[in-house]
Amino acid sequence: MPPNLNNCPIENKRKKRKRKKNQKKKNSTGNIEQNSTQSNVWKKTYENLTKWHTHHQLLYWKGLAERFQQQNQILLKRLEQQNMEQSQIDVCLSEESEASDSGSDDEPETTVLLNQNHLELEFDEEYLNFLEITRKHREELKLQRENDIEVEAAK
């Protein structure tokens, strides 16, 4: 009768090794499944965030374009109004110049016409002096800055 190999210590070690391998395989497949579900969750989260971001960028640029269109329409209306006023002024001035050729004095009429269209600009003498002083002051500051830069560069 052959000896019983099931009780052999070598066979027991082999069986233990096989059990450990099988357990590792089972655990590793469980970890892989768990890792894949986690990666799927992150993948879906990232996809949702990119969709959300793209959607909001689209809304932002669409709103910006609409605001620019409205602004352009307003500016076009203003230009049309100014062109109409300018053409009316040109017509009135040409009529007045024809009248002045006939020998009449038209300066008071011209100033009245310009005042009606709000195109005449009246400047106060004090304001003009203020502007001149401000301009000179800015030029002096500019020259002083340039001199300071040259002095620093020379060092």
Based on CA inertia axes, which overall geometry fits? elongated
Summarize the amount of helix as a percent range. over 70%
Cα end-to-end separation: 109 Å
**Overall residue-averaged pLDDT value:** 79
Indicate the structural class: mainly alpha
> Which sequence of SSEs, written as H and E, runs from N to C?
HHH
Domains counted in the coordinates: how many?
Answer: 2
Radius of gyration: 45 Å
Largest sheet: none
Uncertain stretches of 5 or more adjacent residues = 104-115
Tally the beta strands: 0
In terms of DSSP E residues, the strand content is under 5%
Number of helices: 3
Task: Describe the protein's topology.
Blueprint: H1 9-101, H2 107-116, H3 125-154
Could you please describe the fold and organization of this structure?
- The protein starts with 8 loop residues before the first helix and ends with a helix.
- α1 (9-101) packs antiparallel against α2.
- The protein has 155 residues and is an all-alpha fold.
- 86% of the residues lie in helices and 0% in strands.
- The chain folds into two domains: 12-122, no CATH class; 123-155.
- Residues 104-115 have low confidence and may be disordered.
